[in-house]
Amino acid sequence: MIDLTGKAAIVTGGSRGIGRAIVVRLATQGADVAFSYRGNESAAEETKSAVEAQGRRAIARQGDVTDPSAANALVAAALETFGRVDILVNSAGITRDDLVMRMTDEAWHAVIETNLTGAFYATRAVLRPMLRARRGRIVNITSVAGQAGNAGQANYSAAKAGLIGLTKATAREVASRGITSNAVAPGFVLTELTTVLPENIQEGIRSATPMGRFGTVEEVADVVAFLCSDEAAYVTGQIIGVDGGLVMM
Ligand code: NDP
User: Which of 93, 120, 160, 235 could cross-link with 143 by S-S, CB 3.0 to 4.6 Å?
Assistant: First the structure.
């Protein structure tokens, strides 16, 4: 049984989709949770209520992960209200798909800044309190696209592969201080990010997946919760696939 009682977590992009499931799951296991969102206030309020319904404290903070001061403010808010930060999950992410030859500079930079640089800002911001406490759990949500590449997603694949490098470098820097850094690589999970894919693409993904189905947000959150637990103390620098067997390394 994963017990996060008394722990405080920060989740970026916690208002919807996978991030929301992670926020709720961490709260269910006993953690107080501060999470960020970009602009969807009603979804954020709903997630906050779901945390409070578990009897845990929640902070919902509008802030763009591409803004380093927003990362610092989120950590400061968690420290002020909860008095500690034990867990960081970088889940905020976007797609701006196109073929490389047609991809605009803007689409490239938007995805790199949000999915990779945003995770760096949040990681940098939590490390000081975690190093002081000599404990911490960092989990980055990467993707099978970062492991295997995906046509039409050069920006997204590059950002997610970069996130794997960030995960491993951070793991090496802080392993001796009781802080772990791991990544979870979901396959295809039905959320607002993927429901926009045309039905024939969705069918192609299903048939390429050994389990023959999409994953659920809860299945991703289950693995994240384990990596955040005391039981995962000796797991660091790892990329854990939650993809129905799509990528086998
Ligand atoms: P959704 O589109 O359902 O949710 C995205 C979340 O990120 C929302 O909470 C959104 O806030 C937030 N967000 C987006 N941009 C920013 C930003 N600049 N600053 C702060 N918050 C931001 O996405 P998913 O749940 O599908 O994806 C979550 C993560 O999982 C992403 O990193 C994605 O790459 C990854 N992933 C998803 C897969 C899938 O199949 N769905 C597969 C593999 C990985 P708001 O509500 O305010 O817009």
Answer: 160
